[in-house]
Amino acid sequence: MKLRTAEDRSTEEPVEDTPAPVVAPQPLGSRRRRWRWIVGLVVLALLAVLVVRRTTRPAVNASAGQARVVPVGVAAVEQRDVPVWLEGLGNVTSLATVTVRARVSGPLVDIRFQEGSRVKKGDPLVVVDPRPFKIAVEQAGATLARDQANLKYARRDLDRYTELVKQKLVSQQQVDQQRSLVDQLAATVALDQASLDNARLNLQFTNVVSPIDGIAGVRQVDLGNLVSATDANGIVVLTQMDPMAVIFTLPQDDLPRVGEAFSKGPLAVEAYDRSGAAKLGTGKLTVIDNQINAGTATVRLKAEFPNPEFRLWPSQFVKARLLLQTKAGALVIPAPAVQRGPNGTFVYVVNADKTVALRPIQVDLIQGPMAVVQSGLKTGEQVVTDGQNQLRAGAKVDPRPSTASSQQKPTEASAQ
Questions:
Q1: What is the pLDDT of residue 404?
Q2: Mapping DSSP to helix (H, G, I), strand (E, B) and coil, where does residue 27 land?
Q3: Average per-residue pLDDT in the chain?
Q4: Domains in the chain, please, with CATH?
Q5: Cβ-proximal residues to 253 (8 Å cutoff; 6+ apart), any chain
Q6: How far from the centroid of its chain's Cα atoms is residue 313's Cα?
Q7: What is the DSSP letter of 307?
Q8: What is the pLDDT of residues 247-261, one digit of tens each?
């Protein structure tokens, strides 16, 4: 084999390069048709999957629904006496509030009460300087004694003139004049006696006493100040605290029932604090107002409460609950058991085989956590109180004691 050198390669004739074969491009229409086939196949595959799922799902769901057991809370239908309460908002007011003022004018020389303390009727409160009034009593007494002496002397003269006229030593005119003088002096003595009584009364008024049993407020005047009957603020304000009154309102629609029940006897009223949790007292309805408030469509009622522990305070905001009646032997269930549908109220009743049935009922009223059933249920039946949103007629359930107990104390009443 002979190797070629560089010179040999340079003397050789140039060889032309052979061009690469050129592939002709495919038409645009054929490519579009290919993609359409691919997309069509994918869509057909998806449709097939959906059809298979839809045809198999009902059977799966049906079998799963039949096998599923829903845990629910249940409670028994009970029969008991149910008190029917009407609730309203109100304020506490005192049955007697007295602004103590002096009956006579003068400086205060003694204060005998403590602010905020309990006082009884007749207890001394303050003392107005009594010295001018003692002098007035002495003056009125002296005037009375003088006029009594004059009357006594005039009566003796009348007795003498009466004897002398019989002897015709004096005229009848003199006797009549003396009798008139006696009458005048008797009237003067009576006037003097009234003046003396008035002076003694003013002296008594210098000792200001409590007119009621109550609580003394903040003192309005200090020792040494001049007081009089015309003082605007007075000396102190006394408020009667036991018993107290509560004025509350109810809707005018409740007035016929309240009036009918009130005509049969006293109605009990309970007072609670603003939250409705703490009971402040129990009293009786005493007054139904004679007018309805046209602006609020409510009527005012007044109840009187014993208040020995001072739990009720004037102007205190309270919730009042009026006992309208007591339904004897009523059927009750927990209020959460009551459901509402297009055909009215109903409940789910648990059967013996632990399936539920939809039962229409008539509700008389809802009383706090309890519902009073008028018809549709029997004592001892089990009703579902929790988990109704997962139920339908015939569903299997796992009944458990309900957390909604009808034993709880009702806080309000609403009639249906």
A1: 58
A2: coil
A3: 85
A4: 71-80+329-415 (2.40.420.20), 86-95+240-327 (2.40.30.170), 97-127+211-239 (2.40.50.100), 131-205 (1.10.287.470)
A5: none
A6: 14
A7: -
A8: 999 999 999 999 999
